[in-house]
Amino acid sequence: MRNVLTLLLTILLLTACYSNQETIKATGEGDLWKVHYIYEVTEEELYKRGGIEYTGDEELLYVNYSLVTDEGERSGERKPQENQTAIDFGRSSSNNPPAKDDAIISLNHAYIEIKWRTNTGEYEEKINLKVN
To answer: Which residues pair with 66 in a beta bridge?
Structure first.
């Protein structure tokens, strides 16, 4: 019983820590890619996470992406596993988060450039994000 009470207290404390959190979601869709990016803004930190999903029919051999926001650029290269169509950017955080309105403006200015290779050639696509 004591372990259950400790677990409930821990959950309650964690929930209280994130009660002032604002979640802002932005998405975009191109011809062959979908992108989503999420800001979780607290009073002290900005957490960022997201990913891209390939909607084409060909097998991906190589993917290079660059996501640009007012806060900076996030880029990566991947050689996807067989039949992998989604790529997760992971999660990052920073101090001194923007105000909610500034975060929305930043995400509405954001875009991603994706370059990829399949068996039939190399392609690229630029997608603008929009807050939902």
So the answer is: 75, 113
Strand order of the sheet with strand 22-29?
A: 86-95, 45-54, 33-41, 22-29, 130-131
The secondary structure element, H or E, covering residue 64 is: strand 62-69
Q: Which tens digit of pLDDT belongs to each residue from 22-58?
A: 999 999 999 999 999 999 999 899 999 999 999 999 9
Question: How does DSSP assign 7-36, residue by residue?
Answer: HHHHHHHHHHHTTT-EEEEEEEE-SSEEEE
How far apart CA 63 and CA 118 sit, in angstroms, is 9
Contact between 9 and 17 under an 8 Å Cβ cutoff? The reply is no
**Tell me, what DSSP letter sits at residue 100?**
H
Residue 51: closest CA among 122, 104, 132, 129: 129
